[in-house]
Specification:
Rossmann fold, alpha/beta, 46% helix, seven-stranded parallel beta sheet, Spore Coat Polysaccharide Biosynthesis Protein SpsA, Chain A, nine-stranded mixed beta sheet, 28 helices
């Protein structure tokens, strides 16, 4: 496997998430010399020792500054990943790039922003709420670092329990107490005082440092030689705490040490009388484990020191006010027997958080994300079917146009596929086509709902693989073969094709980009695919209940979303190419098609699947006609920009079509708006009728 570990955004500031990522990489380097690891980093100098490993490569990303890194990360990484072509992307902190659609493993540390909203800015909260949630939704596997984080993911974001793996953070070896000499401990105590309380981590509201300062001010008169040492940087909302320290009557005994090296931090832990960790919310509480490993007694809040992580090796105190926290600290300072017991229990507890255990568990997750262990392979009729080289295939073609349908069937008759094939045509002209082609006709007259037509065809299908094709598409001789091969990749539930317009006229190309803009480029991505050419396993199709027969448009997106919710991938595969003879080659036809397409589908699919994707959630929130109309131009512009961004690297001429793509999108969004009004009017009439009946 080629595994890319993206550290770029985690490196924006030091802290527990970055330390945990470093420990994981240390562990992977130790236990695995087979798989290839690529570390994306903005601090390549920190990973030089790893670069000596033959299977670990450092990929530096040059940054002029770390300012705006959350946005830079989203803009820079898709291009980097396209060049690196990993089998799996692991993001060990923060959100994954929106532009990555391959196998993804995401580590989520906590959802503290929901519990302690004032810990971060509005911008950061929006980032966590939308981008991180979007990443968790599409990740093949989500690593939760504690039971609490796992429970939060399930209860707050409805992440499937089956996709979550619990893997505790590990203690990095650079904090090993054995590496700290008595002379170094003595030097730290000479600098900060022989007795000092220690707090590590950024100063921010969630860490509750202001309560620690208040507790220290209560203790200072009782313990004249006691000092307080705060390591770490100043986070969002730290100004009030810093001001509190500056006006404290014991200011000279409070030390802001800032970020320190791991070696100095080890000495600080070893020399401290107590680590005090009064945080309001923690996913794991890495400083607690670090302190226990270094032989330091711990006083912490129950929210920071869970039984899962700290066991009985800490004193848990009520940190909502200063007096109970001060009393708990004083208890440890005054009772040597208690202090020694905490030290002994802590050392034992910390031994379980090893880099080897973390790395081995994470390596298994990488394998699961690729379906190597078979846990994600779509279930078929039997295990033997799954490994069969040429499973039986059924092709379903809804038909309404005799000439174009005949061209489609002609291309299907030339398929080079060794397995059994049956072709089912559904529509009013099915019997006539059956006179000239070897097909199974399903003639039920004119069917307006495309999903219903395809579902009717399935009733006559015998294949384990189901392929859907529109009657204005022409396929190459290996179309079936390529679809089957794509479906046999790990964890793939649906595959789609590149939809290549037959006509190269100006407005025909405008239509190609406007309506099939995500299916014009040449790189494989995960995401919804078009039913113009779609393949799936019969078992997966039946598991999700087939196409929604009530929808006049968007039924293919709906099917893909349902398949994704079952844990399978839906993959755009550009090696599968179909020629689309849509004949929309004038501006009028372009605008008319997009308007009717928008009016037919509305926002039904987006509303039903608002839990999938940032775009769907935003449109769900904009589903009220006045708001939607106000933002309609912006929505159309954003859709146009996305199409240009996806295609510009391979199709520079997309810039020529940009104004007309925008016009098409405006027509489409206006059709959605009209659909909203029609639905609202219908609801009003229904309510009036009910009122009249009553």
């Amino acid at each position: 496997m080629r595994i890319v570990i993206d550290l770029l955004i985690a490196e924006k500031e030091s802290g527990g998430m970055l330390f945990a990522a470093h420990a994981l990489i240390e562990g992977l380097a130790k236990i695995d010399q087979t798989n290839e690891y690529i570390i994306i980093t903005g601090r390549p100098q920190e990973h030089q020792a790893l670069a000596a490993k033959p299977n670990i490569h450092i990929h530096p990303v040059k940054l002029r500054s770390w300012r705006g890194i959350m946005i830079k990360h989203q803009l820079l990484l898709p291009d980097v990943l396209q060049r690196l072509r990993p089998d799996v992307l692991h993001v060990p902190a923060f959100a994954a790039p929106i532009g990555w659609h391959g196998p993804l493993v995401l580590t989520v540390h906590d959802l503290a922003f929901l519990k302690v909203p004032d810990q971060s800015s509005l911008y950061a909260r929006l980032y966590w709420q939308h981008l991180l949630r979007e990443s968790a939704r599409r990740a093949q596997r989500v690593i939760a670092i504690s039971e609490q984080t796992r429970d939060e993911l399930i209860s707050h974001w409805a992440v499937d329990k089956e996709r979550i793996r619990l893997i505790h953070n590990a203690l990095r070896r650079s904090l090993n107490f054995a590496d700290v000499s008595a002379h170094e401990i003595q030097a730290v105590q000479q600098r900060y005082g022989e007795r000092y309380l220690l707090h590590t981590g950024r100063i921010m509201p969630r860490k509750n440092v202001e309560r620690l300062v208040q507790a220290f001010e209560l203790l200072a008169p009782r313990f004249g030689d006691l000092h307080l040492v705060l390591t770490g940087g100043e986070g969002y909302g730290s100004k009030e705490v810093v001001q509190q320290i500056e006006v404290s009557p014991y200011r000279e005994r409070i030390h802001l040490a800032g970020w320190v090296s791991d070696h100095e931090l080890g000495a600080l832990y070893a020399g401290a009388s107590v680590l005090v960790f009064p945080s309001k919310h923690e996913g794991f509480g890495l400083p607690i484990v670090e302190a226990m490993a270094c032989g330091t007694p711990v006083v912490a809040s129950p929210e920071a020191a869970s039984m899962e992580i700290a066991g009985e090796a800490v004193i848990r105190a009520d940190c909502s006010s200063a007096p109970p926290l001060a009393e708990a600290i004083a208890q440890v300072l005054n009772d040597n027997t208690l202090s020694e017991r905490l030290i002994r229990l802590g050392r034992v507890q910390a031994q379980t958080f090893t880099i080897e255990a973390s790395a081995e568990a994470t390596l298994r997750v990488y394998q699961e994300a690729l379906g190597i262990d078979g846990s994600l392979s779509p279930p078929t009729a039997s295990d033997s079917t799954r490994i069969e080289a040429h499973p039986p295939v059924s092709v379903i073609v809804p038909v309404s146009r005799l000439e174009s349908a005949s061209q489609t069937l002609a291309s299907l008759s030339c398929q080079r596929y060794a397995g059994k094939i049956d072709i089912i045509v559904v529509g009013a002209i099915a019997n006539e086509l059956a006179r000239h082609w070897s097909v199974i006709p399903v003639n039920l007259g004119l069917i307006q709902e495309p999903g219903k037509a395809r579902n009717l065809g399935i009733a006559c299908a015998t294949g384990d693989v189901l392929l859907f094709l529109d009657d204005d598409c022409i396929v190459a001789g290996d179309w079936i073969e390529r679809n089957v091969r794509a479906l046999q990749q790990p964890n793939v539930g649906v595959v789609g094709a590149r939809i290549w317009g037959k006509s190269r006229s100006f407005f025909a190309r405008c239509t190609d980009f406007t309506n099939f803009g995500y299916y014009q480029h040449g790189h494989t991505i995960d995401g919804p695919v078009a039913s113009a050419s779609m393949g799936t396993w019969r078992s997966v199709f039946c598991k999700v209940g087939g196409f929604d027969e009530t929808q006049r448009s968007g039924e293919d997106m709906d099917l893909c979303y349902k398949v994704q919710k079952q844990g399978y991938r839906t993959v755009y595969q550009p090696d599968i190419v179909v020629t689309h003879d849509h004949r929309r080659d004038t501006l009028g036809k372009l605008l008319h098609y997009n308007y009717t397409h928008g009016f037919a589908g509305g926002l039904v699919t987006k509303i039903q699947h608002r839990d999938i994707g940032l775009k769907n959630r935003l449109l769900y929130n904009l589903r009220f006609p006045p708001i939607f109309l106000l933002l309609l131009p912006l929505i159309a512009l954003m859709a146009t920009v996305r199409i240009v961004a996806v295609n510009i690297s391979e199709n520079l001429d997309v810039l020529l079509y940009l104004p007309f793509i925008l016009l098409g999108k405006l027509a489409y969004e206006f059709g959605i708006f009209q659909n909203m009004l029609a639905r609202k009017h219908l609801r009003t009439r229904v309510e009036e009728a009910k009122f009249a009946d009553s």
